[in-house]
Design a protein that fits this description.
Elements (H helix, E strand, L loop, with lengths): L1 H23 L14 E13 L22 E14 L2 E11 L9 E12 L6 E9 L4 H4 L12 H4 L6 E9 L2 H12 L11 E6 L14 E7 L2 E3 L2 E15 L16 E13 L4 E16 L4 E16 L1 E3 L2 E15 L8 E16 L2 E15 L7 E14 L1
Antiparallel strand pairs: 1-2, 1-18, 2-3, 3-4, 4-5, 5-6, 6-7, 7-8, 8-10, 9-10, 10-11, 11-12, 12-13, 13-15, 14-15, 15-16, 16-17, 17-18
Length: 402
């Protein structure tokens, strides 16, 4: 009898196990829907540059086309950013701008691609990754720093003259340890005005004609950068070195009739830059300087020639937090002597400028910047072989983050 009861109990136990077993088997995760693979964010900037203006002929084509005479209230940037991790090793980023102004055109608020690239992780943590598409060139902290985060309203002439819109089509290899990648991201997330994650080491090849322009020769530019964010007690610093080399072809639609130039319009385009950043906790310092050579208009010979260039800036800033608000008073001095290859006739510049400003963030989604500029600019091309302008102006910008 005992044996029979034991056998029946064993059968019941096995039957229960068979019924319950399927519930304990882990089910495969449901595939993500298409709208769960990416996110959308962005920002928009509105500006007015003509308060307390002393010289309407003072302007800066690369900085802000609404500077100077006939400049009114303008939309400087309207950016929508689509981004997402499609796979453990595949990340994409697409950023159009709907406030572009095409050179030589009177049309405003033209839609144009700024970024369109994907990152391919070469290991599971993407410490080694390959970026392909149109993206920022890893040259200059200020160039890579988003305009959404930058304190001065425009990038400095000395560094930004390297690339119009800071971008080009190419392929770039980046490496950074996981802990350093997290630190790069945290510097932006914590409101310390970081540049984002462009690796400890960055190496790349690109067309060299700047963003949204076709290649005009069969040679690639090459760039290399080394940067490392260091923690020294409570302070964070980031020193960097970067350089690029290639040959730039001056576009024919940027030439004045009668200007002299090389028959192939091809000129050496080479730069070396050093960067030092002390993140504002609460006092901050940002400094960059570059030297090199490239095409530049010579008013004495009415020709575009290969000439040396040099220039940079020093920015001092301070971070003040009051309840939920943030204030960033800042001062920047900049200097540049050289050409701007992507402007008419590779326009020749000498820039001396000082700026005093304040960024106020009453809410995370809203910022207001007021900046007073003292400027002396010589910018000369074949149509204006003698052009020295000096003046002061108060500039305002309201920014919405979403």
């Amino acid at each position: 009898m005992k044996k029979l009861l034991f056998a029946l109990l064993l059968l019941v136990t096995q039957a229960q196990a068979q019924v319950q077993a399927p519930d304990t088997v882990p089910q495969p995760a449901a595939p993500r829907k298409w709208f769960e693979t990416f996110a959308i964010r962005g920002y928009a900037q509105a500006r007015y540059n003509r308060l307390l203006e002393t010289n309407p002929d003072l302007s800066c084509e690369q900085c802000d086309r609404s500077w100077g005479n006939n400049g009114g209230i303008s939309l400087r940037r309207i950016r929508l950013i689509f981004f997402g991790q499609l796979h453990e090793r595949i990340y994409f980023y697409i950023q159009p701008d709907f406030a572009s102004t095409i050179s030589g055109s009177t049309s405003l608020n033209v839609g144009q691609i700024r970024d369109a690239y994907f990152d391919l992780g070469l290991d599971k943590a993407s410490r080694f990754r390959l970026r392909v598409g149109q993206s920022k060139i890893p040259f200059g902290f200020e160039n890579m720093q988003s305009s959404q985060n930058r304190l001065p309203l425009d990038r400095s002439d000395g560094i930004n003259s390297s690339f119009s819109n800071e971008r080009d089509l190419g392929a770039f290899f980046y490496w950074a340890p996981t802990a350093v990648r997290k630190r790069f991201g945290q510097l932006v997330k914590d409101g310390l005005k970081g540049s984002g994650d462009y690796g400890v080491v960055g190496i790349g090849v690109f067309n060299g004609q700047t963003a949204n322009r076709p290649d005009l020769n069969n040679q690639r530019h090459v760039v290399a950068r080394v940067s490392y964010p260091l923690a020294l007690g409570q302070q964070l610093i980031e020193p960097s070195l970067q350089a690029y080399t290639g040959r730039y072809v001056v576009a024919r639609d940027q030439l004045s009739t009668g200007v002299k130039h090389r028959s192939d319009l091809s000129y050496p385009d080479q730069r070396l830059a050093a960067t030092f950043v002390l993140y504002p906790q609460p006092f901050g310092v940002q400094a960059e300087y570059n030297v090199g050579r490239g095409p530049e208009f010579n008013p004495r010979t009415d020709s575009i020639e290969t000439q040396s260039l040099h220039g940079g800036y020093l920015l001092l800033n301070y971070r003040v937090r009051y309840q939920q608000q943030q204030f960033f008073p800042f001062v920047r001095a900049q200097y540049y002597d050289g050409g701007k290859k992507h402007e008419r006739d590779a326009r020749s510049y000498t820039v001396r400028e000082a700026e005093l400003g304040m960024e106020w963030q009453p809410l995370p989604s809203f910022e207001l910047v007021a900046m007073y500029t003292f400027s002396s600019r010589r910018f000369e091309d074949f149509q204006r072989p003698t052009n020295q302008q000096r003046g002061n102006l108060l500039r305002l910008q309201a920014q919405i983050n979403f």
